[in-house]
Amino acid sequence: MLTYDFMRNAFAASGIVALVAGTVGFFLVLRGQTFAGHALSHVGFAGATGAILIGIPALWGMVGFTVAAGLAMGVLGERLSGRDVAIGIVLSLSMGLGLLFLHYYTAYATQVTNLLFGNVLGVNRDTLWSLLALGLVSLAALAAIARPLLFASLQPDVAEARGVSLQLVSLLFLGIVALTVAASTQIVGVLLVFSLMVGPAATAMRLTSRLGTGVALAAFLALAEAWGGVALAYYTDWPVSFCITAFSAAVYFASLLRR
Amino acid sequence: MSAIHLDHVTIGLGGRRILADISLTIDQGEFIGLLGPNGAGKTSLMRAILGLIRPSQGTIRVLGEPARRGNPAIGYLPQMHRAVAGLRLSGWNFVASAVDGHRWGLPWSGPALRREVDWALDAVDATDLARRALADISGGERQRLLLAQSLLGRPRLLLLDEPLISLDPHHQQHVLELVRRLQRELKITVLFSAHEINPLLGVIDRVLYLGHGQAALGSVEEVITGPVLSRLYGSEIEVIRLGGRIFVMANGHDLERSEHRHDAHL
Predict the structure, then answer these.
(1) Which of A3, A5, A131, B264 has the most CB within a 10 Å radius?
(2) Mean pLDDT throughout A66-70?
(3) Are the beta carbons of A158 and B98 separated by less than 8 Å?
(4) Closest to A32 (Cβ–Cβ): which among B83, B88, B101?
(5) What pLDDT does residue B31 have?
(6) Chain A, nearest residue to B132 by Cα
């Protein structure tokens, strides 16, 4: 299996992304912002298709759009919380825009499938390096804001009284989420980002109530599910993204059966 | 030096005057019950003392210094958000997140941090409780965690915002006795807001009653009277004392009780 170059790249890419998505996803679940993560991936679709249309790598179009949208959500902050309708409408508009961009770039039907459902077997060396850079930036930024992020998520009123800027923390965190979403879509696509960012984190939270253990477990589960998915796809010839989502869902539902 | 000193303070919120030209002094070591109808400004007063709301006029001094955000001498217990109360995260981690939570970086829990958290949990008898997840404990038990959190950093002034809300009378009494004990042992000043005067009777030193932009501070006998409350509510209020309990009535129905019920359903 590992004799093939594309398989080695697939394992490396999905491994990098899974570790970052699991870790960042834990805080996303903790803050109850999973819908924001979902919405950001859809905004990324418009960015990616727009990038393809003007001839730059889809990944960077994705990063540009998700980060811009993530920061916008962070700035609107409290005014946006509970506004699921507004987020939902922007989400639909982004998918519509993506469709429009593809309409003008007629040749590529496979591009759509790759963007929507991921194409980890098509990851090349350049993309791999880009993913590594994105992952390192995300984790470094998360490490830098982890303490006030945790404080602001669990005890916003006290954090504010202690001098934490809730808006700045929210802004920075959604920027990190945006980078992670952009990286995750390279593996599982726009529509299935939940399987790497939310599934493992939600499972970890059901299995332990300790913070450090929870974060580590979320990262580990994401890694195991991603690699398990790639391996299963190799032996069965089923799509990788299906295999990852299947593992993610199976592990989550198994955790629900516990106690 | 007084614990809290308000000098001709006016606080407006969204074009509405919540407190109008209030002057009062709370001494160190006092246990003050903060009462008043919904929207009277109990939370706003606390937020102003914390430096989160700036008065449009007048000055607020806390332990001799002007009110400012991030004052480590103040411990604050707000109401817990419903989403947080449903998390499967340990009480220990919840309380620990407040230690140095304003600093950037990773939340490493070193020995000093662990000692501080363990001390605060022990002070409210929540050491065993803190091993369990927030979602698995009762509302009264979560209040004890919040109380532990407010003690971190050994504050000299505690602002407790409705710690009795949605607790049954038994748990209310438990929380009150706990706060009273801590207040005496640690020699701190407590501002304790509540909907109803009765649970606080015999525990508080003085009462601060807010309403209609005005405030009355004094003993229960001085403040909880028909004339004073009629002024604060802006309508005719009758106060009935019966068997050691006090009923605040307007047009024959119990005001405090109906508001408490109203809020518990929010």
Answers:
(1) A131
(2) 90
(3) yes
(4) B83
(5) 96
(6) A209
Q: Are the Cβ atoms of B98 and A151 closer than 8 angstroms? A: yes
Residue A227 resides in a domain: no
Please give the tally of structural domains in chain A. Answer: 1
Asked if the structure places residue A249 within a domain, the reply is: no
Range of the domain at A80: 5-191
pTM of the predicted protein model = 0.91
- What confidence tens digit (pLDDT) does each residue in A36-48 have? 888 899 899 899 9
Residues in B closer than 8 angstroms to A151, CB to CB, are: 97-98, 101-102
pLDDT tens digits for range B60-87: 999 999 999 999 999 999 987 888 888 9
A155 touches chain B (CB under 8 A): yes
Query: Of A158, A160, A211, which has the smallest distance from its Cβ to B93's Cβ?
Result: A211
Give pLDDT tens digits for A17-40.
999 999 999 999 999 888 888 889
**Considering the domain boundaries, does residue A123 fall inside one?**
yes
Q: What is the pLDDT of residues A194-235, one digit of tens each?
A: 899 999 999 999 999 999 999 999 999 999 999 999 999 999
CB contact under 8 A, B78 and A158: yes
> Chain B contacts of A143, Cβ < 8 Å?
105-106
CATH number at residue A116: 1.10.3470.10
Q: Which two tokens stand for residue A26?
A: 């834990």
| Chain A (171-230) residues lying within 8 Å, Cβ to Cβ, of chain B | 205-206, 209-211, 214
Does some domain include residue A110?
yes
